[in-house]
Amino acid sequence: METLKIQSVEANIPQVEAFVEGICTDLNCYNYFGTISVAVLQAVENAIVHGNKCNTEKSVTIKFSRAKGGVSFTVEDEGKGFDYKSYTDLPTDTEQGTGIFLMNVLSDNCQFSNKGRCVKMLFKIQGIDAGYSMERANTLTSFFQKATVKI
User: Fold this and answer.
1) CA–CA separation, 54 vs 78, rounded Å?
2) What is the pLDDT of residue 128?
């Protein structure tokens, strides 16, 4: 397991991107980098902004581990938590819930724990089939078409 701990400052997000990129490169799964990094970076941004409220005395911990058939990333903040169960559907407001939506759609399994302070995302590396990839693409397209109409 590899761990990265950052101070709750948005300027530290590129460190997380480099962390994910290094892992994808080391595991020779760079073609998944975009999918994994978007989901992980959304989790980190949510942890910094919403969880820790940009309190520089708090930190965000990102853990990577290999999982059966893929990789797992866990992001945990030091905030109060939140009611993650209310963010399971397609967001109707492009200002709230978009990050959680992206984490759910882009990961193969997304689970919250510790009162919402921790999110664990599993990414299958050995075989995202074409059907599942199309389902993801269609869901994202639907969301962004609706978001464009509201603007």
Assistant:
1) 11
2) 43
- Residue 23: how many other CB atoms lie within 10 Å: 21
Under 8 Å between Cβ of 116 and 50: no
> Is 13:45 a contact under the CB 8 Å cutoff?
yes
From the list 69, 87, 75, the residue with the least C-alpha distance to 123 is: 69
Tens of pLDDT along 102-118?
899 999 999 999 999 99
Q: Which tokens belong to 137?
A: 């693409």
User: Which residues, in sequence order, are bridge partners of residue 109?
Assistant: 122
Q: Which residue in the block uniquely carries the two structure tokens 């910094």?
A: 48
Interatomic CA distance for residues 97 and 17, integer angstroms: 21
pTM above threshold 0.85:
no
